[in-house]
Design a protein that fits this description.
Elements: H1 2-56, H2 61-67, H3 72-79, H4 87-97, H5 101-104, H6 114-127, H7 130-143
Helix pairs in contact: 1-3, 2-3
Amino acid sequence: MGRTHNNYGYIHRVKHNNRKRRVYCASLDGYIGSMEKSVEKAQALLGQRIRSLRIEKKWTLEALGEIAATNHKHIGEIERGLQNPSFAVLVKVAEALGVDLPELLRFEQEGLSRKQLERDIADIVKSISDESLKQIQFVLRVLYPVR
């Protein structure tokens, strides 16, 4: 009889642990799914960043590919967020574009619309001192003179 009781206890523990395992796997799948979406978003933003730096220089994909010693089709796929570039390719592209690697990876503003940028700037302006605001105005007038 003791053996039957032990078997019941064993079966109960297995069922209980499997239930926990299923819940854990479901939440892990959700976590991994959100991580994958985050990585995809970062890939797309990196591609937009590379494209905007390339266009700023008025370069074609072929020109960037030649200077970076990387296939221009691969760079095009990176720009479209379809390829995840290796570290070596990122270094080559950054050097070709004349930016440091951290600057290449500074793509948090690539996905922002003009309205979002204006709101962010307005929030910053509201939070700074009058003296800092005067300094910013001076710098902006030097950089962007009103005609």
